[in-house]
Amino acid sequence: MHQAQSRQAVTDVQGRFLRPVSPGLGWYGIPNGPSWQGNSSLWSRWHAIGSTILSQAITRAYEAIQSGILSGRFRPGMRLVERDLAADLGISRTPVREALRQLEADGFVQHRPNAGVAVSLLTEQSMSDLGDLRAHLASMCGRLAARRLDADGRAAVAERCRAVHVYVGRHAAEDFVVTEAFRLVRDAHALLFDLCGNDWLASAFHRTTFGMVMQASYMDATADEWSAIAGYFRTLPEALASGDEALTASLMEAYFRGARHRLLRAHRRGVTVSGVPAERKGSR
Asked: Edge-to-edge strands of the sheet including 116-119?
């Protein structure tokens, strides 16, 4: 960070994160006034403090906005206003602006001329590509999980799978809620990826779990598809327990390819993230 940027970081974080320790002293005990700026050791100290705090604020803003996108709070195409985001997070606009730049580089948001920043819209092709990627990730996860999961890990995953199987098995019930089924499915897979022993793989999975987009693939599921989903979650723990890497990998890949098929079908039918009642039943 250049000195000018560092001074801007100081200005940006002072009022938001730090308070004078006593009268006559500045933040973190550095004397007020221009004299301290000529002291290289004090300036270096403040440079490091300002840089660290700004970096933490950027990380916090990035994670909060990313979480909002993945959870569906910020929907595809929704405009993101720096001022509003900063107010919600209780920080200044500078770290929010930098976080949005990083999110744009990672594909989560898009900068539109004369319209600001908005959550990225997924086209049919991008949905198809995303589904293919997740199917490959699932295959890798299945192979690793069958090889590496210990007894406690298998038991934890089996418990999550059992919860999905029981709930989805009653998809014809009047009080069946698709959003709850999706949450259970998502949580079961998230745990399996987290326990498979490859942090890079788990990170890639979580970064491609666009909650409200993926949820659309369940909103349009048929009764037969719900039955197949229940069967998958009954069989998956058995495959993991057997230690059969090929079987577990093929099961998970097939499931995620089915999810890709449902997602594309929902997209073509107009069953998108917006405009779909959260309580709509999935069986027809």
From this structure: 79-80, 116-119, 109-112
Q: How confident is the model at residue 13 (pLDDT cuts 50, 70, 90)?
A: very low
Q: Sign (positive/negative) of CA torsion 255, 261, 265, 266? A: positive
Q: Which residues face 80 on adjacent strands?
A: 117
CA distance 40 to 118: 42
Give residue-wise pLDDT tens across range 120-141. 877 888 889 999 999 999 999 9
CA angle 137, 140, 143 (to 5 degrees): 150
For 186-243, the pLDDT digits (tens) are 999 999 999 999 999 999 998 888 776 777 789 889 999 999 999 999 999 999 999 9
Strands (E), the chain: 79-80, 109-112, 116-119
The predicted model scores a pTM of 0.66
Domains belonging to the chain, first-starting first, are: 3-119 (1.10.10.10), 124-268 (1.20.120)
Q: What is the DSSP letter of 32?
A: P
Residue entry with tokens 């006593």: 22
